[in-house]
Amino acid sequence: MEPTSKLSIRYQFDQCGLLGIHRSGLYYAPAQESEENLANMPLLEEHYLARPTRGVLQMLDYLRDEGYRVNHKRGRRLLRHMGLEAHLLQKEPEPAGPSCVYTRLSARGLEIGRCNQVWETDITYIAIGKGFMYLTAVIDVYSRFIVGWSLSNNREAEVSLAVLREAIARHGKPEIVNSDQGSQFTCKEWVGYLKGERIAISMDGKGRALVNIYIERLWRTLKQDYVYMNPAKDGWELYQEVKSFFEFYNHRESEGVFR
């Protein structure tokens, strides 16, 4: 229902009542990121890939060196919005959320010798034109094959779960799925699905990059070798570029065990 409709406001309110929608939605316009923020976010992401241990204040020092004045509140919000967190080495992983019982997975402690033994999944931010999108991917640790991926304009749990479901339908069920402790991977829908499929749940400690390192390397390769060299103007162009990259990655650079 558009606010510019020829229908009277009173009639539109009546229709909102029938649909169960609050009438304030008629006047609400989603807030967009400012031009300055859209310029800052790609810089933060590029610097983060080169220096993943940098914290908020160090990232803001970098922006100031580039000529942008950003206070710590806005900088922290942008980094959180992009899902960027400094990787700090910890002795033990942080405990997962209260609804999740996870398996401690260590790249050095677990011998991975077959496909569908361990999958890793993550979400990353990608800038486009005057906005941004989120890329979700699932990688098989043994073959380094991308078993599933999706582009979306949000980071909702439904997107990540849909990618995992499709990957399982196409390639079979893994024994372990590893992720970080993002809300998409600790919610009851994600945890309930994995438990229902009898798939072991593995989660990184906060700020730890060593366990989920394979998909972290994938993001670095994708962005530094392709996205930054071919900036997309819109979501459709980005989709075509990411699709082309993953086809090359799966079928030419890797051995393609799943082929």
From TrEMBL:
Any coiled-coil regions, as ranges: none
GO molecular function: nucleic acid binding
GO BP term, pick one: DNA integration
SUPFAM superfamilies: Ribonuclease H-like (SSF53098)
InterPro entries, alphabetized: Integrase_cat-core, RNaseH-like_sf, RNaseH_sf, Transpos_IS3, Transposase_IS3/IS150/IS904
Domain of life: Bacteria
Chain ranges of the Integrase catalytic domain: 94-259
Name of the protein described by the UniProt record: Putative transposase
